[in-house]
Amino acid sequence: MQPGNAIVGQSGGPTCVINSSLVGVVESALKSKKIDTIFGMRFGIEGVLNNKLLDFSKVESSVLKNLKQTPSSALGSTRLKLQDEHFGPILKQLKKKNIRYFFMIGGNDTMDTIHRIVEYANEHGWEMTGVGVPKTVDNDLFGTDHTPGFPSAGRYVAMSVLQGGLLAKNMQRVDQFNVFQTVGRSAGWLPAAAACARRKAGDPPHIILLPERPFIREDFLAAVKKAQAKHGFVSIVCGEGITNPDGSPVSASQTKDRFANVEFGAMGGTSAAMILHRIISDEFGWRGEFQVCESLQMCAADRAAKLDYKEAYACGKQAVKLALQGNGGVMVTMNRVSKTNQPYRTEFGTEPLKNVANHERPMPDHFIAKSGMDVTKAFMNYVTPLIGELPVYQSLPK
């Protein structure tokens, strides 16, 4: 690769630690002798199209230091779906800025964007290397043990269910049930993380509904009735993307985004948690609550996992290292090498961008309980070192 400039962008939904990855890319690029300067895309690829770029060589080091601990996407994000007519103007702008290294931090659609733009540039005689940095709270990116953003979002969910479970337990004479909904369109990693809230048998959550398993009304109601009879209340966690046996979403929303993904609960539609609340109330006549936090799971830095910051930053640095070695067309991956988690340890790897763009990573069967409404010990062994220890709260004796 000949010397030139680099560009970095963020896309898709934010996380608590996406800016840590951004700083990892920027700091490594600024130190490189092969990269003259690095530009940041304002609002993802729209920043290239609209020539809205930030020159990071003019950003003070103190700003970058604080940015590492700042949630959400500092450069701004986008949901623009690239069309054929976009590629020519994008390449024109990249040539104008002499961009030879192309980085983006995001999920499946972001990896597809990198792959298509770099491929187009190279086909039209412009040598450029592109590397993706993984990001998603959903934890559904193909080829990596987990994604930066998931540990913090999982910790947020576990903390919410832990604290909400105490509330539900103490208020059971008022509300007999509680439904907590997580984000996650087609993978159950986040609702599954709620299991970390348990300290002993019988602790919330009592039921976990995952998109990997169909929602069967009769089985669900039987589990609800059994848990309420045993504990005096029932705590339920569901992923937003749970579906009926015919594949239709339990959520009533049929609104779709520009990538043809269902926007659960969007534009006045109901959420899965609201539907579950209605089903339980209609069946048993109980009073209950539902909690739909949406993007709070993506940006609650007060509950972020320390490991997540460290790994996100390291993934950003690794992306630049790969690009400078000429290893483009890939996404940075983390591969767990400590099978027993004693101690927990990962190593970097790579996955071709086209593989990440065209595949999702649902929870494997051995992580899901036979009932389809809980997780296994194998999942707990996987997730515990990512989430970290939770606080211990005290209950009074009965």
Structural description of this entry:
This protein has 398 residues and is an alpha/beta fold. It has two domains: 4-136 and 303-358, 3-Layer(aba) Sandwich (Rossmann fold); 150-300 and 362-387, Phosphofructokinase domain (Rossmann fold, 3-Layer(aba) Sandwich). Helices cover 37% and strands 16% of the residues. The protein is built from 13 helices and eleven strands. The protein has helices at 18-31, 46-49, 61-67, 84-96, 108-123, 150-170, 189-193, 217-231, 272-284, 296-299, 306-324, 353-358, 377-387, and strands at residues 4-10, 35-41, 53-55, 99-106, 129-134, 177-182, 207-209, 234-239, 288-292, 330-336, 346-352. The strands form two sheets. The protein has a seven-stranded mixed beta sheet with strand order 3-2-1-4-5-10-11, sandwiched between helices. Helix 1 (18-31) runs parallel beside helix 11. The longest helix is centred in the middle third of the chain and has 21 residues, at 150-170. It is elongated, with a radius of gyration of 22 Å. It starts with a strand and ends in an 11-residue tail after the last helix. Residues 264-268 have low confidence and may be disordered.
